[in-house]
Amino acid sequence: MSSNRRITPTKQPIVARPNQIVTIDRYILEQQLIYAGASGDLSGLLYDIALTGKMIAREVRKAGLVDILGNTGDINVQGEEVQKLDEYANECFIKNFDHTGRLWVMASEEEDDPVPIPEKFECGTYVLLFDPLDGSSNIDANVSIGSIFSIYRRVTENGRRGTLEDLLRKGCDQVAAGYVLYGSSTMLVYTTGHGQVDGFTLDPSIGEFLLSHPDIRIPEKGNIYSCNEGYRNLMPDGTRRFLDYLQEEDAETGRPYSGRYVGSLVADVHRTLLYGGIFMYPATTRAPGGKLRLLYEANPMSMLVEQAGGMASTGKEPLLELQATALHQRVPLFLGSKKDVELAIEFENGAR
Ligand code: FDP
Q1: Quick one: which atom of ligand 1 is closest to the CA of 138?
Q2: What angle separates helix 41-60 from helix 85-97, to the nearest 10 degrees?
Q3: How many Å lie between the centroid of ligand 1 and the Cα of residue 123?
Q4: Runs of H (alpha helix) within 85-151
Q5: Is the per-residue pLDDT at 37 higher than 80?
Q6: For 188-202, how does the pLDDT look when each residue is reduced to its tens digit (9 = 90+)?
Q7: What is the pLDDT of residue 340?
Q8: Across 4-8, 81-85, 136-140, least confident range
Q9: Residue 120: which residues within 8 A CB-CB, separation 6 or more?
């Protein structure tokens, strides 16, 4: 059987009832049981994401103590070298996934080249791309940051290891995507498609992610826009006119919209998923291809938003239809409530 197959559910997904405690392990297992013929490998990958998120969260929570616990390069009280958080997060992903036998190849936002599975370990049929610590310029100010992941089935079958061909894909081929948000609490939000997006909050006292946001649906229209307006003069005409439109007063269409921009993609997308509205990082004269990375940021976030009922676009075309041509390719990104993104596209294309 081709490893690029899609398994369709044979039963209805479980929906947690209020006051029920559902751990992520139980949830993943029960979701797997509704897919007859599922190998369990995708479930295994999701367990490993949860573990990796907990390990990174533990270190992120200590970030402000750096002057007490030691600076990067110092030897800490356990005799270990103190690492930069983004390096730690990157290593954590690689070490937690390279030996599982579930992956064919990996790629990290922190690494120039694909990350192969070492010869000494078994390979699997899945492909993992990740941004181990996104928004890292915010760490020292104690602002929310996150890890983002994207999972595909492999396309090459031959040889012992995956290649670039397995990694350079369209976002619509993803089989799962999600993020871990290190905010006022730690949350894991993921989708495996089928129109279902679920959020889990880490209860640090028991070390478990508990289902806290089952079946997240993004409002069809919101009243918040999220964008770095510092670059307004560098943006295309259409984007500037769209911003003007959002700021005009018109009670009937709920304008003006409120502005919210953390500058940390995971935090901005998380708010957009829950409250609706639009997040945009358009092309600018300084970054004509956009700033955000297609494979590590835009694709996984777009899959989540679309599975929650929203929409994602480059401003010109559906984001998830874009064929990647380079590992660290950048892309303009507009995502959020369907009606708000549709409107943005009209402005981008000069129809308004
Ligand atoms: P950062 O530079 O802090 O790592 O792509 C990374 C990212 O943050 C995103 O998390 C964030 O949405 C964006 O860049 C912020 O870019 P600007 O500072 O240009 O607004």
Answers
A1: 3
A2: 160
A3: 33
A4: 85-97
A5: no
A6: 999 999 999 999 999
A7: 98
A8: 4-8
A9: none
Q: How far is the CA of 269 from the centre of ligand 1 (A)?
A: 12
Run of H or E residues at 28: helix 24-33
pLDDT at 3: 40
The chain-wide mean pLDDT, for the chain, equals: 91
Pocket of ligand 1 (CB under 6 A): 134-138, 228, 263-265, 268, 291-292, 297
Residue 4 pLDDT greater than 50, yes or no: no
- Give the percent of the chain with pLDDT over 70: 89
For residues 344 and 350, the answer to whether their CB atoms sit within 8 Å is no
- Whether omega before 332 lies within 30 degrees of 0, making that bond cis, reads no
Q: How far apart are CA 156 and CA 33, in angstroms?
A: 28
The answer, yes or no, to whether the previous bond of 256 is cis (omega within 30 of 0) is yes
Closest CA to 265 of 151, 183, 167, 209: 183
Which residue minimizes the CA distance to atom 2 of ligand 1?
Answer: 135
> From ligand 1's centre to the CA of 127, what distance in Å?
25
Residue whose pair of structure tokens reads 């997040």 in the numeric block: 279
Residue 348 CA to residue 314 CA, distance in Å, equals 10
The first and second tokens of residue 297, run together, are: 């940021």
Distance 281 CA to ligand 1 centre (A): 9
- Distance set, CA 310 to CA 46, 219, 286 (Å): 23, 8, 29
Q: Atom 12, ligand 1: which residue's CA is nearest? A: 265
Cα of 7 from ligand 1 centre, angstroms: 35
Instruction: State residue 6's pLDDT score.
Output: 54
User: Looking at ligand 1, which residue's alpha carbon is closest to its atom 13?
Assistant: 263
Q: Residue 73 above 70 pLDDT?
A: no
Give me ligand 1 centre to Cα 264, in Å: 6
For residue 324, the 8-state DSSP code is: P
- The whole-angstrom separation of Cα 312 and Cα 314 is 7
Minimum CA distance residue for ligand 1 atom 19? 228
Whether this prediction's pTM lies above 0.90 is answered by yes
Ligand 1, closest atom to CA 266? 10
Residue 130's H or E segment, with its range, is strand 126-134
Instruction: Please tell me the distance between residue 84's alpha carbon and the centre of ligand 1 in angstroms.
Output: 18
